[in-house]
UniProtKB/TrEMBL annotation:
SUPFAM superfamilies: Homeodomain-like. Keywords: DNA-binding. Residues 34-53 bind DNA. This is HTH tetR-type domain-containing protein. It holds the Pfam family TetR_N. Gene3D superfamilies: Tetracycline Repressor, domain 2. It comes from Arcobacter cloacae. Residues 11-71 form the HTH tetR-type domain. It comes from the Bacteria. One of its GO terms (molecular function) is DNA binding. InterPro entries: Homeodomain-like_sf, HTH_TetR.
């Protein structure tokens, strides 16, 4: 019984610390995030945080998973029966969250635009949920097709990742980013207009 109680206490602590760390990551980004500052804000020790999260990268990974879960919740709440609108919704939510995080701080999220690729969450259930959302939309758009829907979903996601990476490397006007993404994906670069 004592082990169950300790496990539950640690789970609650972990959730509370992750919530506070998320606010901190949103405000300062990964590069400027300091475990010691988080410990000070939580009125706990650095060791306590490291007992719950093995490293800053581990904590950041949990933060990204939380963001993806919030992203997926937003997609599920706002989706319609129209597949095209749902793909635009996906892009809108994805870009909105990213741009909102980036605008809340003085620097870009990271100095290394490939940092996100180094944190492997590809085997997490939330990533499968996101791909399944996209697969469902492509199946609606192209029913009875022999296409590999998962392959198409991955390409769509990677194209939108590319727009974000491009923004990280050099800020640009994003007012048409959803339309541009849809046009490039469905019509190709030459027919972008």
């Amino acid at each position: 019984m004592k082990n169950k109680i300790n496990e539950e206490i640690n789970r609650v602590k972990r959730d509370l610390y992750l919530k506070q760390a998320s606010d901190y990551f949103d405000k300062y980004g990964y590069k400027n995030f300091k475990i010691s500052q988080l410990a000070k804000e939580l009125e706990t020790s650095v060791g306590t945080i490291y007992n719950l999260f093995n490293s800053k990268d581990d904590l950041y990974l949990e933060y990204l998973i939380l963001k993806l879960q919030n992203f997926m919740n937003s997609l599920n709440e706002k989706q319609t029966n129209d597949a095209w609108s749902n793909l635009e919704l996906y892009l809108s939510c994805k870009y909105e969250i990213f741009m909102q995080i980036d605008k809340n701080r003085d620097t870009t999220i990271i100095t290394d635009p490939y940092f996100f690729h180094k944190l492997d969450i590809s085997n997490h259930k939330i990533v499968d949920d996101i791909y399944n959302f996209l697969i469902k939309q492509f199946k609606k758009l192209y029913p009875n097709s022999k296409m590999d829907y998962k392959h198409i979903a991955i390409l769509f996601k990677k194209l939108s990742d590319g727009f974000i990476e491009s923004y990280l490397l050099g800020k640009y006007d994003t007012k048409d980013v959803i339309k541009d993404t849809m046009n490039i994906f469905f019509k190709g670069l030459a027919n972008k207009k």
